[in-house]
Amino acid sequence: MYKKIVFIVFIISFINTKGYSVPPVLSDNVVLSGYIKDGQNGELLIGATVYFKELKTGTISNLYGFYSFSVEPGKYTIEYVYMGFKTVTRELEINTDVSLNIELFQETESLQEVVVSGKKLDANVRDPQMSVQKLQSKDVKSVPALMGEVDVIKVLQLMPGVQATSEGASGFSVRGGNPDQNLILLDEAIVYNAGHMLGFFSVFNNDAIKDVKLYKGDVPASSGGRLSSLVDVRMNDGSNKKIEAKGGIGLISSRLTLEGPIIKDKTSFIVSGRRTYADLFLPLASDEGAKDSKLFFYDVNAKLKHVINNNNRLYLSTYMGRDVFKDVNSKMDFGNQTYTLRWNHVYNPKLFSNITFIGSKYDYKLGTNEEASEFTWKSRLRDYSLKLDYNYYLNPNNTLSFGLQSIYHTIKPGTAQGEGDDALFSKVDVPDSNGLEHGVYISNSQKFGSRLNVKYGLRLSGLQNIGKGTIFRFDDDYDVVGEDKYGSGELFNSYWGLEPRVGASYILNNTTSLKSSYSRTRQYIHLATNSTSTTPLDVWFMSSPNIKPQVCDQFSVGLFKNFADNTVETSVETFYKDMDNSIDFKDHPDLLLNDKMEGEVRTGESWAYGVELLVKFRKERFSGWLGYTWSKSWRKFDEINNGEKYLSPYNHDHDISVVLNHKLGKRSQLSLNWVYFSGAPFTAPNGRMFVGGDIIPLYSKRNEEQLPDYHRMDLSFTIKNKKKEGRKWEGEWNFAVYNLYGRKNAWSIYFEQDEDDPYKSTAQKTYLFQFVPSVTYNFKF
Asked: Where is the TonB-dependent receptor plug domain (predicted)?
C-alpha cells in the first residue's frame, strides 16, 4: 500500500499550473543551487529566500542552508533575502546547471535597510504552513528573563496557544495538550526533560542556539511521535572565519562560548558552557547544615563541522547537562545527554540528503543521607536512532521530501536499593521495557499558479514491543489476573498507523492569504505524572498490549495579513483537536516504583478548541508582538469523574502576552513583557471522614475548582559600552526585574486543617517569585 501512495504523490506532483503532466526528464530546465551563509561567521542560514524577479517566484533554503531551483535557460535577476541581513542581488545568465554559494551580511541599524528588507519578507502570507513560530537567538535575547538567564522555552511560552504549566516552569502545554505531547529536539536528538532547577531554567543555552521553530499543529511529515507540537532547536555550527568568544556573568550563573575555525572555511567548532554558582557561597553560611549542601546545574554544548567538498558536509554535536542537589537529609541529581552525527550529501543539483545517527539519554538519582534509613533510587531512559531524509527539487512548482527513521527505546523505570538498617525495603526493581519506534514518510510542497500553495504528505508510523519483559493481565476492576513473560529480543506486540498531513494557503492579494491544515499524529511513549509542575522524577512508559497509542486529529483555519510593507504581520487562527486513547490516571494513583503501573492508567477521549490572535511588528525603534488565545480543553473517561466530562488541568480560557522592545538610542534598549492567563483547574477536597481512626479527605469532581488568575510584568534595560575604534571587546549591561509589581501568583494550593475543627480545612496559596531583580554583564570579542 505504501508503494501505491508514493506513486500517487509522484503523479500529482507532475501536474503543472496548466493542468497537464510534464515529466521532469523531458524538461530543458537548468538548475541553480548552492548554500546561503552568514558572511561574518559562515553559519548556514535556514529559511533564506531566493527570489527570481522575472518569474515572481522562488524558493527557500532548507534546514541545512541548501537551496535548489529549476528555470528555463536565460537571464535572471535573483535576490537573496534573510531577515536582519542585507539583500544580495545577482544578475545571472543561466544556460547550464550552476552551483552558487551566497554570503549575506547583517544590516546596519538604519530605518531604510529595515524597510527595504521588509518588502521581501512576506512568508507570513505565502508560506503554506501555518501554526508555526520561528525564533532566532537575537529574538530570545531581547525578552526580559528570570534572574537574567535568557531562555528559549520561556519566550515560546509567550506565543499564542502555548502556556507554562506553572510559575517559572520549563514544561508547557500547546493547545490544551499535555507537556509530554511536545516533541523537543536539539539537533534532531530528543530532549526528555528540558528543565534545570525544577524547570526554572531550560536546558537551551541561547549563546549556542541558531534557530528555533515551534510547530503547534501542522507538523511536517518528517516528524512524529507526539500529539501536540514539535520544538525543533538547531545549534550554531561555529564560525569558520575567525576565533570568537562571548559570554555573560550574572548573579547566579555565568556562561562562556568559544568558536572558530580549525581549518579556515573548512572545519569549525563551537563549545559553550554554563554553570550556576550559588553552591560556592554555601560554605560561608552561618547554618551548619547549609555549609555542606550543594545546589547547582551545569551544561555543555559542543559541535564540529567539516566541509569535505561542496557536496559533502559532516556535523558532530553533543549536549551534556546535570542538576545536583544535596543537603543534610537528601540528595538528587538528574540530566540529559544527546549525541548527533550527520552527513549532508548533494547527489546532484536536485537531490539533497541528510543521514543522521542519534543518541539520547535522560536519567535521575534520588536518595537519603540518613545512615539508618538510607536508600538510592535510579531511573534511566535511553534512545538510539537512525534517520534518513531526502529533498528532491522536482521542478519549480514541486519539492518532494521523503525518508525514514527508527528509534530503539530502552526504559529502566526504577531501581531502589535500601542500604540502612531501618530502610523500608531492601530492593525494588521495576522491570525494563524496550521497543522500536518507526516512521516512514513522503510529502510534497506544490505551487498551483501564483496564488495557491499546497503541502501534503503521509507518514506511516509504528511501535514494536520487544522483550525481555513481563506484561500483566488485568480484569475489569484492574486487578492482576495473570502475566505473560517474553524472552530477550522477542517481538511480542506491534502497533501501526497512517498519519496524513495536508496544508494549503490561498493568496487573496499581495498582503493577505487564507490557510488551512489537517494533521493526524500518533504517540507511542507517554509520561506518568500526577503533577502539572515539571519534576525530574517523572516516569516514561511505552504503549503495550494494555495501553494503545494516543491518536490526535487536528484541524486549523487561519487568516494572515501584513501591513506597512510587511513590517506588521497579523494572523487569526482557529483550531479543533480530537484525541483518542487519551491517558489519565485514577484518583490517588501509585506511580512511583510500581511494576504494575499500567493498572493505574485509564484511557478515554479528549478534545480542545480555540482561537489565536497574533500581531507582530518591527519598526526602526519599536518591535515586539501581541498574542491572545481563547481556548477550552476537555476530557471524558468512563472510569473518572463518574463518566462525566471534565476540564484538562492545562485548560486556560484566556491567555494574553505583550512583548515590547524600544531602542532608546544606538547603545540602549528597553524591553517589557506582560503576561495574563486564567487560572488552571484543580481538584479540591470538599469534606473529610474518619476511617479506622484516620481522617480521609473527600474530593470534589475532577478539576472542578480553579486557581486564581495569573499575571505579571517583566522589565529590562540594556546598555552597551562605548565601542572604541580598533578594540575587539564589546560589552553590555542588562538590568532586569521579573514580576515588576510583585504579584503573588499561586504556584500551588494546599489545604490546612483547622486545629479546633478536624472536619474543616482552609485553602492556602504557595507562591514563588514576588519581585526578582537581576544584573548581567554580557561580552563578546
From this structure: 127-225
